[in-house]
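Team,

Forwarding the record for the chain on the shared tracking sheet. I've put the sequence and predicted structure together so nobody has to dig through attachments.
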Amino acid sequence: MRAETNRYFTVEQLEELAVAKYIEAALTPAGNEREELLQEAKRFASRAKMKSWLMGEIGITPPRRDYH
């Protein structure tokens, strides 16, 4: 039996994934793998920004966490 996976991420999850990819890229030597990680991080960050904007447009304010 195939396990169901959640394919939808919250804004916070997308932001966390972007940060994780940026960190992973920083720890990877220069080259194709690093560039792929940076592109993936940018995609996650872009999705988070877009989802946050869309939620605002329909009147849903995503909860913001205090990072301090």
